[in-house]
Design brief:
2 helices; globular; two-stranded antiparallel ribbon; alpha+beta
């Protein structure tokens, strides 16, 4: 395995604890000059940069680590980005009526894919503005918690009406690809 760089800022570890690196104590170690140039440019622009270099086997193992922990599913009205933004509020007339994010559990781990095996239901509130739910997210807690990651939904693109029960039934699939 090659070390492509040292992260700065906050990193979520496999046990879901968050570690903050002290950037003064840790410099960047790059084996590829193009990656170093990209990191330098990202620093000048005050942008975030993620270096990913993992085989399918490593990415698959990483998915397995995330899904062995408790996770809670959020729904989003727009892209959650890297922070969980645009989350539709729980326990809210303008969001969904359940008190908190529902938990998500996983079937036995398969090769290069992990599929959820329980149901998440969201009852849209009386003041919900009908619209799509284009994104989902995974968190470490039913409220607050640490944002893990998210992605696009499928089949939730129309105008979802007030009072609708939006149900995700054993359908969340996480995959590793080259």
């Amino acid at each position: 395995m090659h070390i492509l760089g040292i992260a700065k800022g906050k990193v979520i570890l496999p046990d879901l604890s968050v570690l903050t690196f002290n950037e003064d104590a840790l410099g960047h170690l790059f084996y590829d000059p193009k990656l170093k140039d990209m990191a330098d440019l990202a620093e000048i622009l005050e942008a975030d940069m993620a270096l990913t270099y993992a085989s399918v086997a490593v990415a698959t193992a990483m998915i397995a680590c995330v899904t062995t922990t408790a996770a809670y599913m959020s729904i989003h009205s727009a892209t959650p980005g890297t922070t969980g933004a645009s989350e539709i509020a729980a326990n809210s007339a303008s969001g969904y009526t359940q008190a908190a994010r529902p938990s998500i559990t996983w079937a036995a781990y398969g090769s290069a894919a992990q599929v959820s095996n329980n149901t998440q239901t969201y009852t849209m509130g009386a003041s919900w503005t009908p619209g799509p739910i284009p994104y989902f997210g995974l968190w470490t807690s039913s409220s607050a918690g640490t944002w893990l990651f998210g992605g696009p939904t499928s089949g939730l693109s129309g105008n979802i009406p007030v009072g609708a029960n939006v149900t995700v039934t054993s359908a969340v699939t996480l995959t590793a690809s080259a």
